[in-house]
Design a protein that fits this description.
The complex is a heterodimer of chains A (about 90) and B (about 200). Chain A contains 4 helices and 3 strands; from the N terminus they run H-E-H-H-E-E-H. With about 90 residues, chain A is of the alpha+beta class. In chain A, a hairpin with a 6-residue loop joins strand 2 and strand 3. The mean pLDDT of chain A is about 90. Helix content of chain B is about 85%, strand content about 0%. By secondary structure, chain B is an all-alpha fold. Classes of the chains: A alpha+beta (about 90), B mainly alpha (about 200).
């Protein structure tokens, strides 16, 4: 049976990955807007993003003082998330 | 069903719910945009028609039309910016060119209006040319938007405007203004209702 990716599995990171996956790898989102969509405190979101970035699943970039930090899902992150969903479906099937 | 498969099903549902909620928060509510523009076209062109029939001065009707369209544009822009705030596609080039297209087209339209207004031409010529060119610009811009972003609501708007534009050219002056007011007012309201039903089905 396929193992569930421990980087994505915690509820908070799963929510972040779900939202970023919905946007796709070609679209970035500001930290503030992402925080609003995933309904997390800044501290929690920073912690989750740091872990996801270490795994290479998201990329962050500074986009000027006014705009803050931009977050994007990487191609590696998109693949990992697709694998994670497939692993869940496999668990359902058998 | 085992405990593991229960958890897997719950996780998949949570992912889908999170994604749907995020996309809903970012999606432009086309119903509002349709309704605002239905009211804009209907009121603006009813005003022109009434002025052409002598109800009040044409200058007042033109000023009212400009104010109504400016308000509708302002609302559409504000709503769009609010929904997509903080989200940036890889390429902003398309959006920028599209936005400039609208602005430059309307500058030319205003220049055309001034030119026709100061030329020694019958008033009925201006009454035919200005709405026709205005609707042509809007129709083509919406078609460009549909092509750029694969947006079906803009395709409907663009085709609808061009069809009404074409029909209005065969209607006597100033009744053509009433035809535009009614067809676009009613047509865009129908689009808003259909978009609302589609959203309900999707939810």
């Amino acid at each position: 049976m396929t193992e569930l990716d421990p980087v994505i599995h915690p509820q908070g990171r799963l929510r972040v990955m779900a939202v970023l996956d919905a946007l796709g790898t070609q679209t970035s989102i500001t930290f503030t807007r992402l925080q609003e969509l995933v309904e997390m405190t800044p501290g929690n979101l920073i912690t989750h993003l740091r872990r996801l970035e270490e795994a290479g699943y998201v990329a962050t970039s500074k986009a000027g003082r006014k705009r803050g930090t931009d977050v994007t899902m990487t191609a590696r992150g998109a693949r990992a998330f697709a694998d994670y969903r497939q692993a869940l479906r496999d668990m359902l099937d058998g | 069903m085992t405990e593991k498969s229960d958890q897997a099903a719950a996780a998949l549902r949570a992912i889908e719910a999170d994604q749907a909620r995020a996309l809903h928060a970012l999606r432009i509510d086309v119903r509002l945009v349709y309704l605002v523009w239905a009211a804009g076209w209907a009121l603006g062109f009813l005003g022109l028609w009434a002025a052409a029939r002598g109800a009040f001065p044409m200058t007042a009707a033109v000023v009212a039309l400009v104010v109504i369209f400016a308000l509708a544009t302002g609302f559409s822009t504000w709503h769009t910016m609010r929904r997509v705030a903080g989200v940036r596609p890889a390429s902003q080039w398309q959006g920028m060119v599209y936005g400039w297209g609208w602005m430059l087209s309307f500058v030319i339209l205003v220049m055309l209006g001034i030119r026709l207004g100061t030329a020694d031409l019958p008033g009925s010529v201006t009454l035919v040319v200005m709405p026709a060119v205005g609707m042509l610009i809007c129709g083509l811009q919406f078609l460009a938007g549909a092509a750029l972003w694969g947006d079906r609501s803009q395709l409907v708007l663009g085709v609808g405007l061009l069809v009404v534009d074409g029909i209005s050219l065969f209607v006597p002056v100033p009744t053509h203004l009433l035809v535009v007011a009614i067809t676009l007012g009613v047509g865009l309201t129908i689009c808003a209702v259909l978009a609302g039903r589609r959203d309900q089905v999707a939810a």
